[in-house]
Each structure stands twice: as C-alpha cells, then as structure tokens.
Amino acid sequence: SQTIHQWPATLVQPVGSPLSLECTVEGTSNPNLYWYRQAAGRGLQLLFYSVGIGQISSEVPQNLSASRPQDRQFILSSKKLLLSDSGFYLCAWRISGTTDTQYFGPGTRLTVL
Amino acid sequence: QKEVEQNSGPLSVPEGAIASLNCTYSDRGSQSFFWYRQYSGKSPELIMFIYSNGDKEDGRFTAQLNKASQYVSLLIRDSQPSDSATYLCAVYASGGSYIPTFGRGTSLIVHP
C-alpha cells in the first residue's frame, strides 16, 4: 500500500529565515505530487505540482520554490520567510494515469514569528 | 475561472439525524467529484468519490451527483459527534487536468 510522509510536523521560524519541507511517497512510482497551503480558516491553496522528476509547475508567484530531486520526493523551500507564509502545508499525491484520487500527507504546521 | 462553492456553515445537526452537505461547480465539463473530511488540525481524508450521475453509497455516507444541475452532495446518515469536521468538495475538470478545484469546505457540528 502507499504511504506519504511529511516532516517536520511542526515548525516555528523567524521572519527572514530559510525553509525546507520534505515529502516522500512510498509504494508507488511516478506519482503526481502537489504542495498546498491552508492558512487559518481558509481554503486549500495549490502552490506547486509535479508530474515527474525535475518537472515543477507553479500556481502562485511568491517567495516559495519547489523541487523534485527523486521520483517520490518533493521539497518545498524558501530563502526568506515572510509572516504571511504561516500556515498548514500539505503534500498530496495522485497515481498518474489511473483514477484522479488525490491523497494527502499529515501536513506541516508552520508558524513564522 | 473554475469555481467550486460550498456553504461554509456551520451546519449543526443532532446526533442520529441526516446531515446534508452541498457543493456546486461552474465547469460543466467536470468529470470527477470527491469528498474529503478534515478534522481540526489534521489533513484532509478522502471519504467518497463519484463519477456518474446518481447516488453512490458507502456505509453511512451517500454521494449524489447531478451533472445537469452541476451539484454534488454528501449525505451522512445516523450522524455521530465524531462526524463533526469540515467537509471539502473537490472537482476535476475535463480534459485530463492534473489539478482539482477545492471548495472552501462546510463545517459540520453534530451535537449529542
């Protein structure tokens, strides 16, 4: 069966500091991968998605970036965090070429102070 | 701009009642429809998906799809306090899109 991991689970960072969040998927090959952010009391905002290694599409221009160095690894980064970057960051995956079902990881709660 | 609309609620129902959650979408060519449950502080969990017009039942949950009217609903029978959560509707457009459009969710409160 497939499993998705995210770490860290929680993070408190000062404004202007760098960020690196990691997501890995087990039990499948060539998944579609997604990064979402959910601000407090808000809906899901798609940040990035990837259909393969090195293939990243950005949905929202901002100070975040994403990379996919391996088939089942997706990394979200920032060089300098803003207060507005606080939120619940969710990685999701979907089996490409079959059903559309998207599954979410456990998430990372980021607080920027 | 593809849109998925949900009443934010909260929808409050007594324990044992039927909870009815609704979602409308703007893209008439949408193909796939999903319901997620999200407990406070947790990530969304898939509970139902539906592709064809009509009803689909899974335990206490029934998803209903009406493509002509562009709405999808989720019925929860015999609601329990543990069903209290936010329910997210997600819709995939036609044309092989990789990206679902999510509604902002409806908060459900089941009171004893």
Describe this structure in words.
Chain A has 113 residues and is mainly β. In chain A, the strands form 2 sheets. In chain A, strands 2, 4, 5, 6, 9, 10 and 11 form a 7-stranded mixed sheet that branches. Chain A is globular. Chain A is built from no helices and 11 strands. Chain B has 112 residues and is mainly β. In chain B, 0% of the residues lie in helices and 54% in strands. Chain B contains no helices and 11 strands. Chain B is globular. The termini of chain B are far apart. In chain B, 34% of the residues are buried. Chains A and B meet through strand 5, strand 9 and strand 10 of A and strand 4, strand 5 and strand 9 of B.
Q: Could you tell me the mean pLDDT of chain A?
A: 92
Largest interface: A-B, 22 and 21 residues
Q: Which residues of chain A sit in consecutive blocks of at least 5 with pLDDT less than 50?
A: none
What distance lies between the first and last C-alpha atoms of chain B, to the nearest angstrom? Answer: 41 Å
Taken from the alpha-carbon principal axes, the silhouette of chain B is globular
Oligomer: heterodimer
Total helical elements of chain A: 0
Write the layout of secondary structure elements.
The complex is a heterodimer of chains A (113) and B (112).
Chain A: E1 3-7, E2 10-13, E3 19-26, E4 32-38, E5 44-52, E6 55-58, E7 64-70, E8 73-78, E9 87-94, E10 102-104, E11 108-112
Chain B: E1 4-5, E2 11-14, E3 19-25, E4 32-38, E5 45-50, E6 54-58, E7 61-66, E8 71-76, E9 85-92, E10 100-102, E11 106-111
Parallel strand pairs in B: 2-11
Antiparallel strand pairs in B: 1-3, 3-8, 4-5, 4-9, 6-7, 7-8, 9-10, 9-11
